[in-house]
Amino acid sequence: MFFKANFRYLIAFFALIGSSNLIAAPIENISKDFTKEFQNVLKQHRVPGGAFVIVDGDKVIKLNTYGKRQKGRQDKINSDTVFRLASVSKTFAGTLASLLVHEHKLSWQQPITTYLPDFELKDKSLSQQITIGHIVGQSTGLMPNSYDNLINANVKMDKILPKFAELTPMCNPGVCYSYQNVAFSFIEQALEQQSGQDYESLIQQRIFTPLKMNTASIGYQAFTHNDNRAEPHIKTRYGFKHVKVKPNYYQLAPAAGVNASITDMSKWLIASMGLKPDVISKNVIEDITTPGVKTTKELRRREWRSYLDDAHYGKGWRVYKFDGKPLIYHAGWVAGYVTEIAYSPELKIGMAMLINGESREIAKLGSDFWHQVFKHYGKTK
């Protein structure tokens, strides 16, 4: 009798384990398949190196690295190798701005001229209509990527700002989508004046330190002084070529100034999904991921158009409908680096990729991953 009773308990115990494994299986299986695909794609296209992380709730399901920090050298990319995040930096700036809004230190309705009085457009009255919300929500009405050409030429911001007086917006503020890097970074003035801190100190205190993002930093000096950094590579007709790190876009700290490792990105994903409410509250997350202006052009992205049903810009994040399900997303591209981050607010599954070579394959990898996730999970977990 003793043996039979214990045998029944053992059967029940193993049945329980089996049932929990079945529940966990989809993301684990997807992660295994994605690891193979990630490694194969980067190898096939001779991308120097990269890393990705998949999180499920507050757990890291898979963190994987590939390749070298620099082509032709032996140093391998590891979990703490730092990459430039490029425009994924905007997700941090949007969050910081919303934190101050919810502390009643900023208002989305404030004109940006409150903090940047020298900002003028050809029609001065329109300058007063562009608010902080328009800046962070990419709805200023300015021509897309205004004066990025001057940033590419390493012209300094104090020389660029007066040139906005030559511009006539293509629509009124808040009406149309208008992606910016220079104008987006005007938010730095508001954040610094209202917090009493420089941008680097503010992001360190409010995000990097409480989330233990120990290798994250802001700026050119911090990046180039880190020995464990991924070097940039551009695509040429002869393959990937190592180039020097360019300082130009580091002028735009909110738009493109963050450096981080894939380990840091796992922590940023977990917090951005609402699982670190002491750092980023539910109200802030709802604020920055509320759809703003429609981004119709995104619906035509080659690698994503089969899956995207709707696309908007929130505040530092893109807000998609992917296979009919909400997906919060941003990508980045700056000389020699490509990045991507996304999460499902319903499933609390997130994924980020960092690559040190200019390859479009990252977009296909991302779309394939999310198609598999939503195919297996449906509406909710």
Explain this structure.
The chain has 381 residues and is an alpha+beta fold. It is 38% helix and 18% strand. The protein is built from 13 helices and twelve strands. The strands form three sheets. The chain has a seven-stranded antiparallel beta sheet, with helices on both faces. The protein has a three-stranded antiparallel beta sheet with strand order 3-7-4. Strand 9 and strand 10 form a beta hairpin. The two termini are 41 Å apart. Residues 1-5 and 9-23 have low confidence and may be disordered.
Question: What is the secondary structure topology, with strand pairs?
Answer:
Elements: H1 2-44, E1 49-56, E2 59-67, E3 82-84, H2 89-102, H3 124-129, H4 132-136, H5 148-152, H6 157-160, H7 187-195, H8 199-208, E4 217-218, H9 220-224, E5 233-236, E6 239-242, H10 253-256, E7 258-261, H11 262-275, H12 282-288, E8 308-313, E9 318-322, E10 325-334, E11 337-344, E12 349-355, H13 361-377
Antiparallel strand pairs: 1-2, 1-12, 3-7, 4-7, 5-6, 8-9, 9-10, 10-11, 11-12
